[in-house]
## 1
Amino acid sequence: MKSADIRRKFIEFFVEKGHKVEPSASLVPVEDPSLLWINSGVATLKKYFDGRLTPENPRIVNSQKAIRTNDIENVGYTARHHTFFEMLGNFSVGDYFKEESIVWAWEFLTSPKWMGLDPERLSVTIHPEDDEAYQVWSEKIGIPVERIVKLEENFWDIGEGPSGPNSEIFYDRGESFGDQSDPECFPGGENERYLEIWNLVFSQFNHNADGSYTPLPKKNIDTGMGLERMASILQDVPTNYDTDLFQPTIQEICKKAGVEYNKDPETDTALKVIADHVRTIVFAVGDGVLPSNEGRGYVLRRLLRRAVRYGRKLGIERPFLYELTGIVATIMKDYYPEPVEKQEFIERVIQGEEERFLETLADGLRILEDLVHHAQNEGRKSITGKEAFKLYDTYGFPVDLTEDFAREHGMSVDHEHFQQEMEAQRERARMARHETESMKIQGGALADLNVSTQFVGYSELATETKVA
Ligand code: ATP
Ligand code: MG
Ligand code: MG
Ligand code: MG
């Protein structure tokens, strides 16, 4: 089944159940200072759940673009994580609750008319105190109790906004993906065997700004299913990157680099990271975010630089990401017209930023040459941590390139002191930001900031060059 068909069927199924289709909203949150990026389907619907607005229809279905920078370290390593992905969701604003949401999720997943998954391969997790969910899963649906796992962490809470117990559905991909002898090999554990596909959130509380919880006047349902993961199951491939959502991009990168996919794990990781990041970049720029030194623009800049560096690992040393815009746009145009409509603009932004980064790298190399000479004159065999950090911090010159270069000149880099400098910088960043609870989900490598980017219009491109 093609990914576009999964998306279409999901929407069709819930329309049949009386839901109204809500179009995918921009990745840039509207009137929500607590979020840097839209990171889930419900993030754009908060206004209905907290009672600020009444929806036309209390049953809503959507396919929402989402960005999660906190998953960046997983990209290219796990089969299932992206920085940009699509979340399919059905929502009830004070209308139906637990029972219907579970019954419909099961019907959609197992009915041959819809996804047709083998029920024997499905298991679920619930919150230990959620007797109601337990009863529906075991009695109404008839899942054997050993496939209903109780987990304390099944309480959905992203800070301010709706919260409550949740229940997640996992697909067993079989023994070749993990063995029972591994203590993490269970639904909800860190493993590649039990693939989390759908999260059903039963929101019954509001998490208030002061940290307290109050029962919501009406109970809500909020669910999220990863389109890429469903596609990997239905296309019977080992990772999301082997689906029709990524393969055309990966094949094109292979052509540019003169490499083959599925031959060498390190090459594959680079291909996956590039294919992932370029999608995020294309959609972020399509939604009006421009590379800059703060907020979303900074995340965008870091993602692009990361993708360029993975390109260099594959031997691509010229601007190339921008040339992938058209492929990404074509893969996604079924549901998201923006990248096609703005293709030329997106290409221009990406190309400009790639060129600037390559210049930065060239500048950094010149400075590095001086540093090496200086060190050699002093009879040193290594670049100090401070020097490597300055290159990184002031010129945006990645430390692994510094290390490569040093090695080529028979030298090393004082890694320990470099790390100390990095930690000191992180500490400064931590002090500088007043992190809201919701920002934590955006944490990790890319989000040491919470300043918003100004959108300056499609004609103006960002001009800054030197950042870390
Ligand atoms: P995981 O445990 O696999 O990291 P999660 O529990 O963080 O996923 P949720 O916040 O429950 O994910 O999001 C709902 C659904 O969205 C998940 O069940 C999954 O199908 C999908 N999803 C979440 N994060 C990602 C991601 N980074 N890339 C692709 N799909 C994702
Ligand atoms: Mg996660
Ligand atoms: Mg999870
Ligand atoms: Mg989850």
Note: The pocket of magnesium ion (ligand 3) is lined by residues 196 (CB under 6 Å).
## 2
Amino acid sequence: APFDIPAEELLKIIFEFASKLAHENDLDQLHLLMAEMGRRLTLADRCTLWIADPEDKILWTKIAHGMDRIKIPIESGLVGAAYRSGEVVSIHDAYKDSRFNPAVDQKTGYRTQSILCIPIRNADQEMIGVYQAVNKQTSPPVFTEKDITYLSLAATYTGQSMEKAILYSELIESQKEIILTMGNIGESRSRETGQHVKRVAAYSYIIARGSGLSEEEARLIELASPMHDIGKVAVPDAILNKPGKLTDIEFNQMKKHAETGYSIFKNSKRKILQAAALIARDHHEKWDGSGYPHGRSGEDIHLYGRIVALADVFDALGSKRPYKDAWPLEKILNLIRFEKGKHFDPELTDVFFDHLEAIEKVRDDYRDES
Ligand code: C2E
Ligand code: FE
């Protein structure tokens, strides 16, 4: 007789996955966990969670260990049939069903036999994807009514948590994009490429982590550092893009970008923007007190500012500016070594050199175009 999963096994799986899923924020991990839960519930050989992208007319999925997504046309095969109709599709022998698309089997050498496809809906009952279980591992190898019930329950649960996770990751991605875009305002006006802010963010993260800060705090600095020069929006183009050396008057105007950046963010209650305010204010201070805007020295300069100062100068020296050519790496490293304890926090300078390999890798990975 067709085989259903025993009740106590069912409970075990539900408890196991309920707690795992509740603690997982990462969309890809969530995706894989849910596929695994579906596989265990239905005793299937494989289980895939397909998410719909109606704009691109595809369904996509994540595979374990793979970086890329797998995509199929939204109307393709039995998965597509379940998505289009909104109804359960349960087939004992896929090759006897004209809707089945054997292309994937042909590519992978896998032999699909029984298939169970269950549409996934969000809280508003809109279709967002399909659960697909393949090849029941029992004899006879067919999916049962209970399998449909269990996987449908999982689909309901999945629909709600996936939607939350998708919204959450949308939010995080937009936040990152806004930050980089804002950071680029100061840069693009001085004709620098967008790569500068990304590199500074990555260097800052490496130095922050290397100096013993937590992963969370290092990520905060990484997110906030791209906005260090946002105050340059208030500096006239003629100064920003001047091909030669600035006059004292011009440089005094330029120096205001630190305080301007600070005042843009200082009233925010958001952690990232508070960090951005401090970074904008302190990234041109120097350890020996000879920097600006306040001439603070040593640990009176906020740690975030001291970190970004190193990252910013390292990157500025290696980049072409309207007023200077890019320096060769050796010359840059000599300057940083020389400025240890003068411009730069001596401990952070050591951290910088301890992590030079990772820093140089970032430099190679995010080269300026042209
Ligand atoms: P930036 O070009 O992004 O440079 C950031 C910081 O990197 C500079 O802060 C400085 O500490 C370091 N740096 C950059 N290029 C050199 C260099 O050739 N030699 C040395 N020793 N250090 C360098 P700083 O000096 O406070 O300048 C802040 C911003 O003011 C610069 O940002 C740039 O936008 C502008 N700026 C500075 N000097 C000039 C200049 O002579 N001409 C023009 N057109 N702009 C300048
Ligand atoms: Fe600056």
Note: The first strand starts at residue 44 and ends at 53.
## 3
Amino acid sequence: GDEREVLTYDLFGTAARELAQQVADDGFEPDLILSIARGGLFLGGALGYALDVKNLFVMNVEFYTGVDERLDLPVVLPPTLDAVDLTGANVLVADDVADTGRTLELVRDFCAGYVSAVRTAVVYEKSRSLVTCDYVWRRTDAWIDFPWSSQPPVRTRSARPAH
Ligand code: 5GP
């Protein structure tokens, strides 16, 4: 549809605190938080403070190219995460939204071979998501405007190779 779900920075702060409370109430004690960049960095950082976890990791995954426009498959972009960092850990994966759920599925499966436990936290989960997240703030099927991407970049850059 055409309707949008609008998340403000103010509401995001509430969402992050409430998600952290869900994790704490559940008794889950992550050794590290793995954010899915870029959209999951904000929640990962906020959960890091709220849950007193300083061990933050990032996985770069690209799937969406526009509003509801996707690549065929989510792809992991360099630099790739060193699996040694994950071995035996309780991992909390943080992302903005589980939409199709394919990004989270990719990251969860990547972790599954190494970690002791992996759980997922998202601000939003859509009904079509093939991954059922452990910690969810709100459910919607609308396109979500996140505060960090609701405005165009202040400048655009031409594509250049990763380094
Ligand atoms: P999925 O793999 O679950 O389909 O979605 C992967 C990523 O696509 C999300 O982490 C998010 O960055 C982006 N995405 C999916 N749905 C939305 C949406 O409704 N709004 C925005 N802004 N991004 C979305």
Note: Residues 9-25 form the longest helix (17 residues).
